[in-house]
Amino acid sequence: MPEEPIANPGLPPHEPRPTDVDPEKEKRAERQVAALFGLSAISTVLFAVAYFTLDVGDNWSTFGSLGASTVALGATLGLALLFIGIAIIQWARKLMGDHEIVEMRHPAYSEEEDRQRALADLKIGFEETGIARRPLIRNSALGALALLGVPAVVLLRDLGTLPGDKLEHTIWGRGGQKITTVVDGKEVTVTVPLMRIARDAIGTPILASDLEIGDLVNAQPEVLFNPERYYVDPSEVEGINLQINKSKASLILLRMEPDDITPGKGRDDWDVNGIVAYSKICTHVGCPISLNERTTHHLLCPCHQSTFDLANSGKVVFGPAGRPLPQLPITVDDQGYLVAQSDFTEPVGPSFWERDYDRDRFGDDD
Ligand code: FES
């Protein structure tokens, strides 16, 4: 056996801790650990209370511009995790076995004998935690850890808010409606003009004759730029209302050779001399689309490469999207401007499980 360069000093003798020799101190440490787990549980409950009682927009002046909800959720969840961490450290320091051991180097593989020894050590370690004979700690720890699932549930709930019928109607449907309004102090019933299609950002209505074969235009309903013409209160197309209406109504216009179009069932009159209109919102998870392959009339979504055939009812030809792009039926008004015949005839935006998709009407997109 080669001589060791330095004499092995061995392990110092084990020094018992106060909690090893004094049952009173041991009991006190046990209660401290349980109290810390209890504080964690209270913090988690406060997290849930804060989530349901504080509005996201609330501010506490002492935190400047930080929202009350944000501060409360962060603080309570942070404390819940902190108390669990401190409890585990205290448990290990004061109550679990603290015998130092020497582990000799050994081959990477484990001999059967080593495995048995490891299992035996694990068993000893488990017994030294005292979890079997300390039901107070065990139960409080289980309670604190189980309650940590509550934040996960409430946070996941926010991811799953379902849109209900909010995507079934867009402001394109305002055109052509009969409404009652007040003109010169008198209540009258009027028909709202069909909604003109306007260029995005600048709001100029688009003449069908403006578009050349191959042109692709991002468009919006004219009401967002000229609400009075459609008897809409300007406040309905300002601020957050503007953002909501704009995101739902965003449109792609493309002009192609009329003979290239294969109209879907019931869509023979949905284009104007080769000009077709589709929702700009991808039916996969809602990215805005505008990458056009001119020769194939395919529209490519940059997010996950879903590809839609604009010459064939917006059907999916590639990628993860499960539904065709919704098509907007269009025509021209008496001045030659492109207008929507009606609203979209199906919900816009990404798929969601409660969405009612009518395969008889729109065909199978497989
Ligand atoms: S959002 Fe368009 S492919 Fe995923």
Query: What integer is the average pLDDT?
Result: 88
**SS strand fraction:** 5-15%
Largest sheet, if any? 4 strands, antiparallel
Order of helices and strands: HHHHHHEEEEHEEEEEEEEH
- What number of structural domains do the residues give? 2
Please state the overall shape, judged from the principal axes of the Cα atoms: elongated
Q: How many beta strands in the DSSP annotation?
A: 12
Tally of individual helices: 8
Unreliable segments of 5+ consecutive residues:
357-366
**Fourth CATH level, the homologous superfamily of the largest domain:** Rieske [2Fe-2S] iron-sulphur domain
User: Which strands sit side by side, in order, in the main sheet?
Assistant: 3-4-5-6
Radius of gyration: 34 Å
Bound molecules: FE2/S2 (inorganic) cluster
Overall description:
The protein has 8 helices and 12 strands. The strands form 4 sheets. It has a 4-stranded antiparallel β-sheet. Residues 357-366 have low confidence and may be disordered. Helix 2 runs antiparallel to helix 3 (68-94) and helix 2 packs parallel to helix 5 (135-147). With 366 residues, it is an alpha+beta fold. It folds into 2 domains: 18-100 and 113-159; 171-362, 3-layer Sandwich (Rieske Iron-sulfur Protein), CATH 2.102.10. It binds FE2/S2 (inorganic) cluster.
